[in-house]
């Protein structure tokens, strides 16, 4: 917190007054950064309302590519888990998962308003958890990972979002 306060040009006490504690600050920071990605994810989903599988593919591919090339995400991932931000998307990541799931639920409900609520929530949370996993432990290319996830979840997407493809 001292390093953050110094970098921001404020006192450590000012940070504690604003955020309460290190965890609250970390969560706020991760959500702030996630907002940048989720706006584009939502756009990608809504651009493919005629094809839900394509919506998932486009949104996940965009997220993985953007996160993979983001310098702040690289810093986050270089943390060894002992004092940085990585726990806020892994071992202490439930608030981030809940926040991102709610955002994704809202956009899917907007695009496919007749989809069953429980299916939308299941799909959204699964996609969020998979996206975090692919970002924190990257393997194949973003495009290939997104393609594999869309293919794997395809039958569920078809059923849940009513496409029957």
Return the domain count. 1
Q: Can you count the helices?
A: 8
Main sheet properties: none
Please state the overall shape, judged from the principal axes of the Cα atoms: elongated
CATH class: Mainly Alpha
Strand content: under 5%
User: What oligomerization state is this entry in?
Assistant: single chain
Remind me, CATH topology? Tetracycline Repressor, domain 2
Which CATH-level-2 architecture? Orthogonal Bundle
| Mean pLDDT level | 84
Q: What's the β-strand tally?
A: 0
> How would you spell out the order of helices and strands?
HHHHHHHH
Q: Given the helix and strand composition, which structural class is it?
A: mainly alpha
Explain this structure.
The structure is a single chain. The protein has a single domain (22-161), classed as Tetracycline Repressor, domain 2 (Orthogonal Bundle). The protein has helices spanning 2-8, 12-19, 22-46, 52-69, 71-78, 94-111, 117-136, 142-161. Helix content is 75%, strand content 0%. The protein has 165 residues and is mostly helical. It starts with a helix and ends with a helix. The protein contains 8 helices and no strands.
List the helices and strands and how they pair.
Blueprint: H1 2-8, H2 12-19, H3 22-46, H4 52-69, H5 71-78, H6 94-111, H7 117-136, H8 142-161
Summarize the structure in short.
This protein has 165 residues and is mainly α.
Q: What labels describe this entry?
A:
165 residues, mainly alpha, Tetracycline Repressor, domain 2, 0% strand
């Amino acid at each position: 917190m001292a390093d953050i306060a110094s970098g921001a040009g404020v006192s450590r006490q000012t940070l504690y007054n604003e955020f309460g504690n290190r965890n609250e600050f970390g969560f706020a920071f991760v959500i702030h950064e996630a907002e940048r990605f989720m706006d584009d994810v939502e756009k990608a989903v809504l651009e493919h309302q005629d094809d839900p599988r394509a919506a998932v593919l486009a949104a996940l591919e965009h997220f993985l590519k953007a996160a993979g090339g983001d310098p702040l995400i690289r810093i986050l991932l270089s943390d060894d888990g002992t004092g940085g931000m990585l726990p806020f998307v892994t071992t202490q990541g439930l608030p981030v998962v809940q926040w991102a799931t709610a955002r994704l639920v809202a956009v899917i409900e907007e695009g496919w308003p007749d989809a069953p609520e429980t299916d939308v929530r299941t799909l959204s949370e699964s996609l969020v958890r998979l996206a975090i996993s692919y970002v924190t432990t990257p393997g194949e290319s973003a495009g290939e990972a997104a393609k594999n996830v869309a293919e794997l979840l395809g039958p569920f997407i078809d059923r849940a979002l009513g496409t029957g493809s």
